[in-house]
Amino acid sequence: RASELLDAAQAATDRGALLTRQLLAFSTGQTLIREPVDINTLLQQWLPDLQRTCPAHVVLEASLAPGLPQVSTDAMQLQTALANLVANAAEATLEGGRILIGTALEHRLDPDADTALQRGYVTLSVCDEGHGMAAEIAERATEPFFTTKDIGKGSGLGLSQVFGFTTQSGGFVDVSTTPGVGTTVSLLLPAIEDPAHDR
Fold first, then answer.
1. Mean pLDDT over all residues of the chain?
2. In the predicted model, is pLDDT for residue 103 greater than 90?
3. What is the pLDDT of residues 5-58, one digit of tens each?
4. pLDDT per residue over 142-157, tens digit each?
5. Which residues contact 37 (CB under 8 A, 6 or more apart)?
6. N vs C: which end of the chain shows fewer Cβ within 10 Å?
7. Which of 155, 153, 172 is nearest to 163 (CA)?
8. Crossing angle for the helix pair 75-92 and 158-168, nearest 10 degrees?
9. In the prediction, which pLDDT does 122 show?
10. Nearest CA among 58, 189, 53 for reference residue 121
């Protein structure tokens, strides 16, 4: 019983810390402290803590593509963004299931650029087997303070923080969701191809 109470207290503390970071990022428009980072290395460090934040019936797995280039971003805010995505995925997987964190290298067009040239992006994806979202919900999911959760269970800041952080890092976000099947949210961050240029 004592162990259960301690686990609940730790989970509440983790949620409080995450909400505080979200509020700070949202209210102050925090400037990113960008530096070259290896996403796979960071993920291996963060996975144990992320697993502890998931309910016992949710299995967290990782599939990391080897040999990825570095990206220029803020590691602390990347961790917060990933924690937001995992928390949302765990909430959606109420009946139990798997959350898969994956990385990959993709060559894509920059949706905001005027050029037709592709560039390399390191993709960080969080995929769940949860209830998914209807199209009208998915369209509003990144609005600040929009949430479908009960009062006291969601701040509505999670996905807006994720989108804001990714955009500040020069990247973009893909959301793929199907009701009754699950949701995949992918952060595409520009790969450092020329260190002198991307610094």
1. 79
2. yes
3. 787 777 667 666 655 555 555 544 556 789 999 999 999 999 999 998 888 888
4. 544 445 554 344 444 4
5. 70, 71, 72, 73, 75, 78
6. N
7. 172
8. 150
9. 97
10. 189
DSSP symbols for the chain: -HHHHHHHHHHHHHHHHHHHHHHHHHHHTPPP--EEE-HHHHHHHHHHHHHHHS-TTEEEEEEE-TTPPPEEE-HHHHHHHHHHHHHHHHHH-TT-EEEEEEEEEEEEE-TT-S---EEEEEEEEEEE-S----HHHHHHTTSTT---SPTTS--S-HHHHHHHHHHHTT-EEEEEEETTTEEEEEEEEEB-SSHHHH-
Cα 32 to its chain centre, rounded Å, is: 16
Is residue 171 pLDDT above 80, yes or no? yes
Residue whose pair of structure tokens reads 């949302």 in the numeric block: 88
pLDDT confidence of residue 151: 38
How far is residue 168's CA from residue 34's CA, in Å, rounded to a whole number?
A: 10
End-to-end CA distance of the chain: 51
- Kindly state the tokens that stand for 127: 């995929």
Helices 2-28 & 75-92 angle (0-180, nearest 10): 120
